[in-house]
Amino acid sequence: MGMKRGKRWLAGLLCAAITLTAGGLPAWAEGAPSVIIDTESGETQAQATSEEVPAWASSDGVVPTEAAALEVGGKSAILIEMSSGQVLFEKNPHEKLPIASVTKVMTLLLIMEAVDEGKLTYETPVTCSAHAASMGGSQIWLEEGETMTVHELLKAIAVVSANDACAMMAEQISGSEEGFVARMNERAAELGMKDTLFTDCCGLDEAAYSSAYDVALMSRELMKHPKITEYTTIWMDTLRDGKSQLVNTNKLVRHYSGATGLKTGTTSKAGHCLSATAQRDGMSLCAVILGCTTTDERFGGARKMLDYGFANYAVYTPTVDEAALSPVKVLRGVESTVQPQMDALKSLLIKKGQEKAITQSFELAQDLEAPVFERQIIGKLTLSMDGSVLAEYDVYAARAVEKLGIKQAFARIFRALIA
Fold this sequence. Notes:
- This protein is α+β, with helices and mostly antiparallel strands.
- It has 2 domains: about 1-315, Beta-lactamase; about 320-419, Peptidoglycan synthesis regulatory factor (PBP3), Domain 2.
- Helices cover about 30% and strands about 25% of the residues.
- It has helices spanning about 1-20, 45-50, 105-115, 130-135, 150-160, 165-175, 175-190, 210-220, 230, 250-255, 295-310, 405-419, and strands spanning about 35, 75-80, 85-90, 125, 145-150, 235-240, 245, 260-265, 270-280, 285-290, 315, 330, 335-340, 340, 350, 360-365, 365-370, 375-385, 390-395.
- The strands form 6 sheets. A 5-stranded antiparallel sheet has the order 3-2-10-9-8, sandwiched between helices. The chain has a 4-stranded antiparallel sheet with strand order 14-19-18-16, with no helix packed on it.
- α3 crosses α6, α3 (about 105-115) packs parallel to α8 and α6 (about 165-175) crosses α7 (about 175-190).
- The longest helix has 20 residues, at about 1-20.
- The termini are far apart.
């Protein structure tokens, strides 16, 4: 406890020194005893809170039209479209590499799933154990016995990559960090992450590894929880009634239009890593870059990939020609027709400008033999472009139609005769 208080005092002292030498922190941090950043990034507090726009944030205006012309740094990288999972760019996507705090994408995913399953609420209080309080690296300086809500701990993990907050949540969900790590690896297998091994809940242990492709898989799964962006898009916020100021290391949140997250990671072995997500015009992308030599290289590489995706691709949502869904005749049924219906059509990822070249064709049964079952497939919609099939969608019977019985047949004949 005494050592923790000493560390907190030192952090406050450093903050005060930076305030004097850097011309003062922004107004939101004035008078605050502590400004907390992800210390693993290597940035000072002055750099983290700087108003200056970094060079990597400014595009030169030249975005390649083909993935082969896209040049990014790092040892490995990938760009995917989130709704389809389609890979738009890749560079050594399956190379097994340490990913540092990008590991926390899986930790955040398991927390969000625990909330969905009713095991936790955002207001559930969690108490810091001795193990959680002993975590090194980036942290929010939690004391043993200190209590925070799941909401506060999510904020700490997403914004400043707090290892102590990760350990608290791991113990809350699985009883121990070891049990939580086992679940992390189980979930990775369920998601098809074949290049991954987790050995802790936060990424401190450099024996762990993953790949750009696997990071994209778990990032895509995490972003299926819309509420996570309430945490991953935070630039500056506070904990402990304003006494602890938080600054996000993911500068895309500040300097990239449409940024929605997601997680940075840095160690001497892993280098500078990033899983970056963004959304524009109804399309969401995830750019992962691992093993960069500088933080500017990772942010610049992610920005280039995202720029390429947004400049060249669009999400196309087809609409159904309702006139084509005319009733289908039913032979020997208690009803003479059945109405076709379709589920909502899934969107397609296309190159920009291709929308007008897409054609629709319906194949619908001319008649059906009773009985007809509800949601029986009775036709198909095909979307094509330049002679190639883009997608096919089933057409269903909107309701069941029973076979006409003898008595019902005679009744129908009698009504026809007297009509």
